[in-house]
Ferric reductase-like transmembrane domain-containing protein (Rouxiella silvae), 247 residues
Amino acid sequence: MNIFSKANEVLSKRKFLLNSRRAIIHDILWSIKDLLIPLLITFMIFSILTARIQTGSDYALKNMPSMLADGAAWAYSISQALDFPALIWAWLSILLGLSISTKFWKKNNFLHTYTETLHRRVGINLIILTFFHAVFLIWSAMGDTLLTVFIPFKYSDLERKLYVAFGVFSFYGMIATSLIFYFRRRLGHRVWIFSHRFLAPAVYIFGVWHTIAYGSDSFLYGTVSLIVIASQIPLIILLSRRLLPLK
């Protein structure tokens, strides 16, 4: 039995999810409730960044002092703060997605179904967090608009335009991979499996690359970058085990 027939067998056991509209509404409503935890993390990070701004030790403020004069430091700090839970949720989403394909999860139907549901809801949370991470840059007094933050290579910072583009591509990739699941019956299971086997990891890599290359905090704290890189090890192991049957 190949991977496509296996996917069809698994999906046929979850008739609720075959109604794409109902499933999307259900997941979005639950995802809104789930936002409490990442928002609490955002608030804590924002408080830390605000304290650093007041002491004059914030790295971003040192590089962009005009933000404080223009009263826009709060917007950039919120954008920064949202990046932390977004990165964690991206890691968690990939971890859950890769775990589902392991033998341990496949043997337990309840655990498999619950993990998949959580995986979808975390993915929706991630899209919301990333969206507002970009939107708040509009008020950061750097000359950005909706066009510059959501269109690749239009960002105001010319030196790091490429790295911001990675983040933009990652954002649209998140939306695509999430929607493909709900419309897999129309698109075909092959498209769904291909997107989650290859597109999702690529989207995640773009997002992490964006964070490490552009994120102000990753530049300032070498430990942050080190933790981000080290946390990829379990994902690489799980991804290798998933791709191994294709060899």
Observations:
- Residues 3-246 form one domain.
